[in-house]
Amino acid sequence: MTYTLADLPMFADLDMAVLRGLTARRRSYPAGQVLCTEGDPADQLIVLLDGRVKAARVSAEGREVVLAVEAAPVAFDKTALLVDGPHRATRTAMTPVEVAYLPRPAVLELVATEPSVAARLLRTLAATVRDLDERLIDAAVRDVPSRVATWLVRRCATGGPVPLYGGQAGLGAEIGATRVSVNRALRGFERRGMIEIRAGEVTVLDRRALARLAAVAVG
């Protein structure tokens, strides 16, 4: 599904005439295309309108560390754009993608003149900080199986298989664990009849059992 700028949370209440007046360049790229590189200036707001993107950094040893797998609609590096800083990660298309580029001056003008944009941007940034805080706490006080169980429970709410777009390494990056420890947890769940592991996805068979392990309430 291809989204529009109006589908982005920070632009949700913006008048359509204002949105149409934005000078946005739209581009389509194949899987494997690098959209931005860690350390480069964040002089444009990159909005993902379709597809999925991997955010990664390179460790001191030269190893790629996957930070997250992001799906449309989402805007990248809003904080860097606001403070005139560099991109904090290299983002690479995992699927064919469509993106829109908004010049930094245009975004800053919207934030300064449109209260709804500023308010929604603040809420988005606050949610990002809260999510990071929860992930850090989880990594410090919860074991890997409970973190994997929580991740699965939250993503299988609508039913059907849960895709592992970044593989088990990508899941591990999101919850602060190694691929090996994630694989061990998944295999343990499978032996207990909670899930079924297939190529690139996990099917949850017993969501309530996983929720008990994760201490997450389910409806």
UniProtKB/TrEMBL annotation:
One of its GO terms (cellular component) is cytosol. InterPro entries: cNMP-bd_CS, cNMP-bd_dom, cNMP-bd_dom_sf, Env_Response_Regulators, HTH_CRP, RmlC-like_jellyroll, WH-like_DNA-bd_sf, WH_DNA-bd_sf. Residues 27-128 form the Cyclic nucleotide-binding domain. It comes from the Bacteria. Residues 142-208 form the HTH crp-type domain. Gene3D superfamilies: Jelly Rolls, Winged helix-like DNA-binding domain superfamily/Winged helix DNA-binding domain. Transmembrane segments: none annotated. GO terms for molecular function: DNA binding; DNA-binding transcription factor activity. CDD domains: CAP_ED (cd00038). Keywords: DNA-binding, Transcription, Transcription regulation. The keyword NAD does not apply. This is CRP/FNR family transcriptional regulator, anaerobic regulatory protein. It comes from Nonomuraea jiangxiensis.
